[in-house]
Amino acid sequence: MINNSSFGVQKQQKIQLKLLNNINKNSLFVV
């Protein structure tokens, strides 16, 4: 169960990194 929860956290972190990368690419629109 601990392994599953940690895996879920890693998945969330990867998704957050993807979102951050997308924001960086579209920074002109964000600003």
Short description:
The chain is mainly α and 31 residues long. It contains two helices and no strands. It is rod-shaped.
Main sheet?
Answer: none
Return the string of H and E elements: HH
First CA to last CA: what distance? Answer: 42 Å
Q: How many strand segments?
A: 0
User: Which structural class matches the secondary elements?
Assistant: mainly alpha
Strand content: under 5%
Helical residues, percent? over 70%
Number of helices: 2
Shape: rod-shaped
Give the low-confidence spans.
Answer: none
State mean pLDDT (0 to 100 scale). 77
Radius of gyration, taken over Cα atoms and rounded to an integer in Å: 13 Å
How would you describe the overall organization of this protein?
It is rod-shaped and about 40 Å long. The protein has helices spanning 2-25, 27-30. The termini are far apart. With 31 residues, it is mainly alpha-helical.
Short descriptors:
0% strand; 31 residues; mainly alpha
Fold blueprint:
Elements: H1 2-25, H2 27-30
